[in-house]
Amino acid sequence: MCLLLAVVTLALYNPVNRHPFVNYDDDRYVTENPHVRQGLTAHTFTWALTSTEQANWHPLTWMSHALDCSLYRLNPVGHHFTSLLLHAVNVMLLFLLLMWTTERLGPSLFVAALFALHPMNVESVAWVAERKNVLCTTFFFLTLWAYGWYARNPDWKRYLAVAALFAAGLASKPMVITLPFVLLLLDYWPLARVRGTSAQANKTHPTFPWSRLALEKLPLLALSAASAVITMQAQQASGAIRTTAEFSFGVRIATAIYAYAMYLWKMVWPARLAPLYPHPGDSLAAWQVLVAAVVLLAITAVALRLRTHRYLLVGWLWFLGTLVPVIGLVQVGEAAMADRYAYIPLIGIFVMIAFGVADWAEQKQFGLWPVVPAAAVVVALALTTHRQIGYWQSNYDLWSHALAVTENNFVAEDNLGGALILEDKEDEAHPHFEAAARINPRDPMSHSNLGIYLQNHNRMREAVTQYETAVELTSDPVLLALTYANLGAAHRALGEDEQARKNFEQSLRFNPNQFNAWLGLGLLAQQQGKLGEAISDLSRSVEVQPTTQAYFELGRMLAQTGHVPEALDAYQQALKISPDLIEAQQAADALRQQKR
Q1: How many whole angstroms separate alpha carbon 171 and alpha carbon 63?
Q2: How far apart are CA 314 and CA 202, in angstroms?
Q3: What's the CA gap between 267 and 404, in Å, rounded?
Q4: 231, 262, 291, 464: which could join 174 in a potential S-S bond, CB 3.0 to 4.6 Å?
Q5: pLDDT tens, position by position, for the chain (596 residues)?
Q6: Three-class SS of residue 332?
């Protein structure tokens, strides 16, 4: 059965191995992250343990990406395959956990199949930057395994294994902070560790009162609390947490209720899926929130009424509880909900469906007939998932689809514009940046992108205005570093060298590895005849990120200072990146003539 699940999962998701990186966080996590690009080294290991980049502390995720860079460099095939392999492992772990704890093959297999093939899980597997999701889920399941082992014979060594695996999960993604509460649910079902609630004596696990079981989880709750504090500090430092002035508490409650219901709807009817769903703010109608609340209360009432079927209450509380960290009560970023957030929570709903239908069919004595509709559901999900995977085959497809299935999605407008820029379609990208700024005038990314467009069209003063607006609207250090570097380049083009220098230095304060800030400083030093300083700055630029312009200018500086072999090497590096760069070829040929 494990082999069957693995083969089906790997076969269905195989197309992702041919997909590129996407222009949504993959650059920040991998392709333009100098620490990760070094591969898994002692330096990367130390950096990962202390870094709170991307508004999270997740050292194991950073190490995972760095290991992929060691193995595959920047070939996206390997990075995608690692995520796919982790998803296949998660599928098998889930099946074995349910099989061994419930001793029911059919429902356990169906839950694992739903988890493997559901379209809402595509985002977690097909998006390299979401490695943290599949990785933390692996440790989540391994922690449940260790807990089952501990429950058979509670002792401190086994408990230590549970705690260590849970810590590894938190070090992959802090969303698993609710795991201690999940363990309490498992005590109720299927482990039946709660004294006085079992219909029959449990011969496998010793039983305890609720108070003892809750006390048992306190050390794990301490780990959750520590992770929550670190995460909040990281998110506040990056400016990711939205204030109550932006989203009032009433709006957050209403949006959370509606999001719970929407996750259920998309689980049942997985259509119009997108990488990001814009936050509705105060635009939700009262009837939408009311209907959502009625649905949630109705399911809660059914789960309580049928509580003798313990998996119903456990599955429902699993779904409600594991979504709490990302349901929007603490609003992080722009999204109201995200498919990736449902990766673990929907397992609870899958359990309710699979075990509930299996019990009903057994009661009605349908024999093997339920296999037919179950197979039909699996096939339908597989076909829908195959189509959803296709949207991730290019940036253009991904964001065009996102705009088609969502409304007022300024993030999708920004990223579609970025995708068109990567295809050298700058004029086609410009309207998308304008649309993003129109949808959300306080979106710093669209202003930064408009600045780049204006700068490329030699409208420097207008570009400066857009960059300054972007700087005022963001506290994201990555965007600030990029924008200040571009602002410096615009001021340099206007002949305002002192202001340009200040901007470049400000950029490097936010990100010491901002390559174009080093390039800008090098060009300023070159203009002022400080050749040694120019060589140093340009060398730092190509060290962080090799570019044609930096290598060419470095070659010129090295040639002027008499370092001919080094200059030739710099020109050759420039030609490797841009083989048709005539100036570099001519300069290299001239140096060779001098040597003769």
Answers
A1: 10
A2: 18
A3: 20
A4: 231
A5: 999 999 999 999 999 999 999 999 999 999 999 899 999 999 999 999 999 998 899 999 999 999 999 999 999 999 999 999 999 999 999 999 999 999 999 999 999 999 999 999 999 999 999 999 999 999 999 999 999 999 999 999 999 999 999 999 999 999 999 999 999 999 999 999 998 765 444 556 788 999 999 999 999 999 999 999 999 998 888 777 777 777 888 999 999 999 999 999 999 999 999 999 998 888 899 999 999 999 999 999 999 999 999 999 999 999 999 999 999 888 777 778 999 999 999 999 999 999 999 999 999 888 888 899 999 999 999 999 999 999 999 999 999 999 999 999 999 999 999 999 989 999 999 999 999 999 999 999 999 999 999 999 999 999 999 999 999 999 888 899 999 999 999 999 999 999 999 999 999 999 999 999 999 999 999 999 999 999 999 999 999 889 999 999 999 999 999 899 999 999 999 999 999 899 999 999 988 887 66
A6: strand
Task: Kindly report the length of the chain.
Answer: 596
Structure tokens at 291: 């209907």
Long-range contacts of 457-462 (CB under 8 A, 24+ apart): 460/490, 460/493, 460/494, 461/494
The counts of H helices and E strands in the chain are 30, 2
What whole-number distance in Å separates Cα of residue 320 and Cα of residue 71? 39
Alpha helices in 306-345 (DSSP H): 310-322
Question: Which residue in 494, 527, 488, 523 sits closest to 508, CA to CA?
Answer: 488
The token pair at 15 is 């197309």
545 Cβ contact list (under 8 Å, min separation 6): 32, 34, 515
Helices (H), 345-458: 346-364, 371-390, 395-405, 410-422, 426-439, 444-456
Q: What is the DSSP annotation of 71-125?
A: HHTT-HHHHHHHHHHHHHHHHHHHHHHHHHHH--HHHHHHHHHHHHH-GGGHHHH
pTM of the model: 0.93
